[in-house]
Write a structure and sequence with these properties.
five-stranded parallel β-sheet
């Protein structure tokens, strides 16, 4: 559903962002929980250069175009937007989602987008992550294969 339509109908937009490199069940669980919070879920996807800067050499493993295609195929995701900045602040400023969702790992970390979201009356929701389900853990398991 288009952002303008959601706004006109008073329906909440949920927004989240991340790299989603090597899509796995932890990502799906997180996105399902995020989508349940509103009428539509838009996902900001860190592009290739952004992922390289933030995750380091060798990342991303999967190109942004392929990651976007995979995310778009999930029925819980209504829209995928690729961005190259280090934070999603530009997308958040443009969309002004009612709900901004991040993983529970941000409970004890600085969330740079929080002040922006709260400045226009949006709400930040942290969703618990599925233990042992992360891209880093998956990469470690693959590297450990004989």
């Amino acid at each position: 559903m288009a952002r303008q339509t959601l706004r006109r109908q008073g329906l909440p937009l949920v927004f989240s962002n991340g790299h989603f490199d090597l899509l796995h069940v932890g990502h799906l669980d997180y996105l399902e929980q995020a989508r349940a919070l509103g009428a539509a879920l838009y996902v900001g996807l860190n592009g290739d250069s952004s992922t390289m800067r933030l995750k380091g050499p060798g990342r991303p493993l999967v190109t942004a175009q392929e990651r976007a295609r995979l995310l778009s195929a999930l029925r819980v995701v209504d829209c995928v937007l690729i961005f190259e900045d280090d934070t999603a602040a530009g997308l958040i400023q443009a969309l002004q989602p009612e709900i901004y969702v991040k993983g529970g790992d941000y409970a004890h970390k600085l969330l740079p987008e929080r002040p922006l979201v709260e400045s226009y009356g949006g709400r930040v929701v942290l969703i618990d992550l599925v233990p042992e389900h992360s891209t880093s853990a998956l990469i470690a398991r693959i590297k450990a294969l004989p």
